[in-house]
Amino acid sequence: MRTFANLGELAAAKGEHLGHGAWHEITQQEIDLFADATGDHQWIHVDLEKAKAGPFGAPVAHGYLTLSLIPLLVRDIYAVEGLKMGVNYGLNKVRFPSPVTVGSRVRASAELTEITELAQGMQAMVKVIVEIEDNPKPACVAETVVLLVA
Known about the structure:
Layout: E1 2-4, H1 7-12, E2 17-20, E3 24-25, H2 28-38, H3 43-46, H4 48-52, H5 63-68, H6 70-74, E4 78-80, E5 85-95, E6 105-118, E7 121-132, E8 140-149
Parallel strand pairs: 1-4
Antiparallel strand pairs: 2-6, 3-6, 5-8, 6-7, 7-8
């Protein structure tokens, strides 16, 4: 965990790789709950037998499930002390280069690519790469934008 004492310290880290998070196993229960929450019950996600015979050999996580795990996967990478709040402001670019099969382990790496001072704090752009254990291609590459208020 990389801890910054304040937003000024974070700003000084612009352009730096911030580290890697902990591994997280993707379970069928997570996939099923996400399918229920979003209404996306496509067979490649929730029909175990059909998915085993499908193109990936197992059920796969929704791309948006992988994307939604970014806060969980990044929380062990860096923190800024003294914040009143951090708010997801959006995404600039998201890609899903490789499917995540059930039982796979994923983790995130983060790079602080931009930081902009605003009246209420700072806006940080963090490039997050969600890696799949033992797979050279990432599951997700996303440019996340976060508003940090001190």
